[in-house]
Inverse folding.
C-alpha cells in the first residue's frame, strides 16, 4: 500500500483529456498537490492508503474551470449600469465610477468577492486584467486559487500609473515578486489596440518574448472600434497587431466578434488564442464571435466571463451553457459547439491559452490537482442520460460542492475554507452604500 | 385591526404593474388567497392582524413567474439527445422515445418532476402541451400550482387519440372536468400548422370562440417548416392561419422565429400573442425571434422554456436572462429588452396571453396571491444597485426561497409542501434506468 494525501471517489470522472471519456465509479489519487492517477474505486482502495478519502457518490468530478478573461475587482460594480450600449456604458458609467472609486481597497475587496464567487461556481484559475495587479496577486495567493495577473498597460494615466513606461515597470515588479510561485502567473495585459500605441506594444512584444509569457488583450470587441481604427490609421486593429508581431502564439485575443474570412485564416496561421466571452458580448450587443468557424480553422478558443459589470456574474458553468446555445444560434447548426467541446473550451483550452497546458486544464497524471465536484442528484438534473450534457445544459452553480486547487480543498461542501464569506459580504455591502449614495 | 390570513414583509417588492415601481420595506397583505394591498411595513402592522407573518428581510418579492410554453412531462427525456439538429432530434430520438415510453405513468411522473422544478425556480403558472392532459391537470391540481392544460390536437394517431375528432372530444372532456376550477384552465393546443389540417383547425376556431378560450400552437419554429409549407400549399403557415381566422387575440403563437416585416405588422393587427422560447430556439438552432421589433409593433410577447428535452431546464429566471441577452445580440442594441421588460414578459405578458390577466401576473389588489420570493443576500448578488437588474442578470434559481399560489405556501424555505421530492427523484431515476437500458 502506497501512502498518499487523498483519494477522491466519484460517481463520474470526466478528465477532458483523453476526449470523450467518462469514468464511472473511479477514484482520483492525489499526492503533494498533483494528480497521480485515475483508477477503479476498488483498485484505488487496494493500491493506496490515503490520509483523506472523499466519497462523492452522486457527483461528477471535472478539471477545475479556467476563466480566461475577467476583471475580478469589477464585481463591486455589478449591475451599476445595465441595458446600455457599450460606449455609453463605458464612458458615462464605468470609467467615471472607476476614476472615483478604484484604489487598493477597492481592488482588494472586489477581487476577494470575485474569487469567492468563482470558487463557489467551480473555477480554479482566472486570467485577470485590472489596476493594482499587485493587490490582485496578493489576494489570489492568500485565497489559494490559481491566477494569471495582468500587467495592465494603457497610454493614458490612471490611479495605477502615469504612462505606458510606468505601467510596464510596475507590472514587471509584480512579475518579479511572483516569479517561481506555483499559483500566480503574470501576463502582459495591454488593454486594447485603441488604448495602447505602437511603441509600448513593440516594447511588450520584446519583453513577452524574453520572459516567455503571454499577452492578454481586448481585440475587435465592437464594429465601432474597428471603424474608428480604419478611419484613423487605414488599418483594421488585427492587421496592425499582425504588423507589430503581437499576433503570435503568445496572444490571447479577447472577444474577436468581428472577423473576415481572411482574418480567421490569418489568425489561425499566427497561432494566437482567442478568449470568447459570449454573455458580455450579448449583453453589450458587441457582436457575435464566429466560434464554430474559428475552431474549424484550428484556433484554440478559450472561454471567459469578462467582468461582473457586463455579465453580471463570474459563473463559468453558465458561460459554457451560453457559449453552446449561442454557438448553435449563430452558426445555424444545432450540432455546433456540443457539450464536450464547450467543457474543453472552459478547461484545457483555457489552460493552453495561458501557457498552463502542462499544469492544469485536464485530469492528467502529473498535472496539479485542480478539481471541481458537482452534485448531480437534484430534481433539476434528473433523469441523467449523459453527465457532460447535464453539466452544460442543466446544472446550476449551486450544485458545485467541492473545489481543490493544487490539492488544497478550497471549497468544502460549499463552505469556503480560506476566505471569510461574511466579511466579504459585509465589505461588498459597505461599497454598495458608498457607491450608490453619491 | 382587520384580521387577515397573512402578511409578507419584504425588503423589496416589485409589483410589475405599475411599471418601474420598487417598494422598499413594504408588506403584502393576503386574504382568502388574494392580494389585499401593498403598504409600508409599519402601516401594515398597524392595520392588519395576520394569522401568519413572513419576514423576508433580504428578499425580493415578485409576481410568480408564468411559463407560457412547456411540455412538462418531457422532463423525463431531459438530455436524452443533445447537440442535434431539430429534425434529427425530433424524428430519430424524441418521437421514437415518446412512442415507446409515453403513457399515463410517464405523464404523471414527468409532470410532477416538472412542477417540482418549476416551483423551486419561482414559476407559479405553466401553459402545457402534451398527451394525457387529464393526467397533467390531475397532477397540477394536486400540487397546487396554476396550470393551463393544452387540449392537444394532431392529425396523426398517438397513444392519446386516433384522429383529430377524438383529440378534440377527449380534450373537451378535460375542459368540462375542470370548468370552474380556480387553478386549472384548458386551452386548445393544435400542435403546429404542419401537423394539423384545415378542417380540425376550423373546428377549433369555432369551439375556442364559443368557449372563450385560447389556442396554443407552435408557429414558424424553423425555416424548413415554412419552406415545406410553401412548397406544398403555396402559402406560409402564418398566412394560412390568418386565412383560417386562427390568428386572433385567442392565439398564442409559440416560437415565431421567421417573420417578414409584413408578417410582424399583420400579426400585430390580428391581436395575437407570441410566446418566445429563446433557449430552445438557440439550442435547436431554429432561428431568432425578432422580439424587440415585435414588441415595438405592439405584439404582447410572453416567455416560455419549452420542454426540458430542448432546454434542458424549466427555469424561468434563466430564461429571462437568456431573453435579455439574446434580444440585445439579435437587435444589435444593448438597451433592447431591459431587465424590467423581460420580467414583465415572464409575468404579466404571460398571464395576459393566457387570458389570466385579471387573475395573476402582477401584484395588484384583487388578483390571486401568486408570489415568488428570492433571497438577494448572497455573494453572487452583492453589491446590489437595482433589484430588478440583479434578479434578471445575477440571480440563480436556488435563490428562490418561497412560492405561493393563490395564497397557498407551496415552497417554504426551499421545501416543497405539497410534493414529495424524494419520491419524485426516485421515480425519475427509475425512468432513467428503464429508458437508458434499451
Amino acid at each position: 500500500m502506497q501512502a498518499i494525501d487523498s483519494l477522491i471517489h466519484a460517481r463520474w470522472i470526466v478528465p477532458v483529456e483523453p476526449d470523450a471519456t467518462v469514468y464511472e465509479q473511479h477514484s482520483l489519487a492525489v499526492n503533494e498537490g498533483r494528480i497521480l492517477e485515475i483508477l477503479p474505486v476498488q483498485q484505488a482502495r487496494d493500491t493506496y492508503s490515503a490520509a483523506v478519502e472523499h466519497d462523492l457518490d452522486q457527483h461528477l468530478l471535472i478539471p477545475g474551470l479556467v476563466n480566461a478573461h475577467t476583471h475580478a475587482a469589477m464585481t463591486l460594480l455589478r449591475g451599476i449600469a445595465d441595458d446600455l450600449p457599450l460606449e455609453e456604458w463605458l464612458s458615462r458609467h464605468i470609467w467615471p465610477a472607476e476614476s472615483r472609486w478604484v484604489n487598493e481597497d477597492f481592488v482588494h475587496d472586489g477581487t476577494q468577492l470575485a474569487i469567492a464567487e468563482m470558487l463557489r461556481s467551480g473555477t480554479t484559475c482566472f486570467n485577470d486584467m485590472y489596476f493594482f495587479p499587485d493587490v490582485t496577486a496578493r489576494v489570489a495567493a492568500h485565497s489559494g486559487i490559481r491566477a494569471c495577473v495582468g500587467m495592465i498597460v494603457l497610454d493614458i494615466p490612471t490611479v495605477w500609473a502615469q504612462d505606458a513606461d510606468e505601467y510596464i515597470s510596475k507590472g514587471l515588479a509584480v512579475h518579479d515578486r511572483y516569479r517561481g510561485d506555483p499559483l500566480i502567473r503574470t501576463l502582459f495585459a495591454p488593454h486594447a489596440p485603441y488604448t495602447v500605441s505602437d511603441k509600448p506594444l513593440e516594447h511588450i512584444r520584446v519583453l513577452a518574448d524574453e520572459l516567455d509569457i503571454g499577452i492578454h488583450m481586448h481585440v475587435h470587441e465592437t464594429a465601432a472600434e474597428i471603424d474608428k481604427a480604419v478611419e484613423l490609421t487605414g488599418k483594421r486593429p488585427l492587421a496592425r497587431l499582425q504588423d507589430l508581431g503581437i499576433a503570435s502564439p503568445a496572444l490571447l485575443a479577447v472577444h474577436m466578434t468581428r472577423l473576415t474570412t481572411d482574418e480567421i485564416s490569418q489568425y489561425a496561421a499566427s497561432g494566437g488564442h482567442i478568449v470568447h466571452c459570449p454573455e458580455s458580448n450579448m449583453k453589450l450587443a458587441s457582436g457575435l464571435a464566429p466560434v464554430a468557424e474559428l475552431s474549424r480553422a484550428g484556433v484554440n478558443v478559450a472561454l471567459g466571463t469578462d467582468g461582473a459589470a457586463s455579465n453580471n456574474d463570474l459563473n463559468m458553468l453558465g458561460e459554457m451553457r451560453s457559449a453552446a446555445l449561442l454557438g448553435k444560434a449563430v452558426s445555424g447548426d444545432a450540432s455546433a459547439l456540443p457539450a464536450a467541446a464547450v467543457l474543453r473550451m472552459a478547461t484545457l483550452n483555457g489552460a493552453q491559452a495561458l501557457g498552463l497546458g502542462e499544469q492544469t486544464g485536464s485530469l492528467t497524471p502529473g498535472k496539479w490537482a485542480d478539481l471541481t465536484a458537482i452534485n448531480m442528484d437534484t430534481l433539476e438534473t434528473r433523469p441523467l442520460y449523459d453527465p457532460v450534457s447535464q453539466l452544460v445544459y442543466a446544472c446550476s452553480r449551486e450544485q458545485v460542492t467541492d473545489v481543490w486547487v493544487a490539492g488544497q480543498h478550497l471549497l468544502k461542501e460549499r463552505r469556503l475554507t480560506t476566505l471569510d464569506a461574511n466579511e466579504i459580504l459585509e465589505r461588498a455591502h459597505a461599497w454598495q452604500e458608498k457607491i450608490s449614495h453619491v
About this structure: Chain B has two domains: 2-63+367-406, 65-353. The domain at 65-353 of chain B is CATH 3.20.20.140 (TIM Barrel). The two ends of chain B are 64 Å apart (CA to CA).
